Amino acid sequence: MYNILDKYKQAIIFLLKLAIVAGAFYFIFQQLATNQLLSLTQLKQQIAVLFSKNSWLLLLLLLFTDVNWILEIFKWKTLASHEKKITFFEGFEQCLASLTVSIITPNRIGEYGAKALYFEKKQRKKIMVLNMIGNLSQLTVTMVFGIFGIFFLSDYFEIGLFSFNMHKFLLTVSVLLLLFLIGKNSGIIKNLKEYAHKVFNYSKELPLKILTKTFGYAVFRYLVFSHQFYFFLRLFKVDADYITLISLIFSTYLIASIIPSLAIFDWVIKGSVAVFIFGLIHINPLTIVSITTFMWLLNFAIPTLIGSIFVLNFKMVADK
After folding, report:
1. How far apart are CA 111 and CA 131, in angstroms?
2. At 269, phi and psi to the nearest 5?
3. Contact (Cβ atoms closer than 8 angstroms) between residue 214 and residue 58
4. For position 261, what pLDDT does the model report?
5. So what's the pLDDT on residue 162?
6. Between 124-157 and 208-235, two packed helices, what is the crossing angle to 10 degrees?
């Protein structure tokens, strides 16, 4: 059996890469063709309205996307340098290829393994930890800005987000306690503690300069794509002051980020959350869904398609 697999190893790898790319194309097409929030006809109409008199805006919006991914690449390049120096183009390839692979995995977990394959076997576990640190830095920034947005909305719209409910509190505590007991009896908690301890020890090895630069890139990246959203709102003639709109955007990203999902459904979740959040100022749902769709196309779908080229050309790193 081993000899057969070894004989056809290259063919199997090629078919696997082809399946990943075909899957990525299929899922992107499916999400556009079967989207219940925004049909293809409506999407085409919105694109026509947006760019009919302002075709130059497409270049500006693409610039937002370029800066967004350039910052992500520099963030990854900074982290990966702790194990191995990589060029900007190598970082570009690793980020976009891993995005393509992660498209059908829960919470983009496939990204971890995809990036690790670009490094020697002895480095792969550490590379996955570095990738996790990069993602946690982005999540931390999302939470910090998101909490600001939630507090502003709670105060401005008096929606009582933080009102205490004893029944909900007791139910939440009971569920968490039950999960803890199940995890403890099954050994999951013990394994997680050991893994967390190893991750923490490795994280302490990272120089402060790398951690600072990583967090800085995460902050600037967040500001770029959140203001791309804001720019879209202005293009669609949404009339509200800057603080209100940016708080709504921050809140949308915070709520969407804590909902587990497949990466391919990320924009559907953001669209649904955004419709609810922006409903507080009575914005047309079609406008919000159109914006989240454009954001997804520019920052996710197009980079995924570019990443498919790198997936097809991928070659396993030989161990020294």
Report:
1. 8
2. -65, -45
3. no
4. 52
5. 47
6. 50
pLDDT of residue 164: 44
Rounded Cα distance between 284 and 205, Å, is 50
Contact 180, 189 (CB under 8 A): yes
Instruction: State the Cα–Cα distance between residues 77 and 210, nearest whole angstrom.
Output: 10
236 Cα distance to chain centroid: 25
Q: Is the pLDDT of residue 39 over 70?
A: no
292 contacts 267 by C-beta, under 8 angstroms: yes
Most confident of 6-15, 66-75, 94-103, 169-178: 66-75
> Facing residues of 106 across strands?
262
pTM (two decimals): 0.82
Of the listed ranges 60-69, 177-186, 234-243, the one predicted with least confidence: 177-186
| Longest Cα–Cα distance in the chain | 68
Show the tokens assigned to 235.
């293009």
Q: For residue 275, which amino acid is it?
A: V
Task: Return the domain boundaries, the chain.
Answer: 2-160+210-312
Among candidate residues 87, 117, 83, 23, the one with its CA nearest the CA of residue 314: 117
- Residue 319, burial from CB neighbour count under 10 angstroms (0-12, 13-18, 19+): exposed
Cβ contacts of 151 within 8 Å, gap of 6 or more: none
Instruction: Name residue 311's amino acid.
Output: V
Burial class for 118, CB neighbours closer than 10 Å (0-12, 13-18, 19+): buried
| DSSP secondary structure, 28-81, as one string | HHHHHHS-SSS-HHHHHHHHHHHHSS-TTHHHHHHHHHHHHHHHHHHHHHHHHT
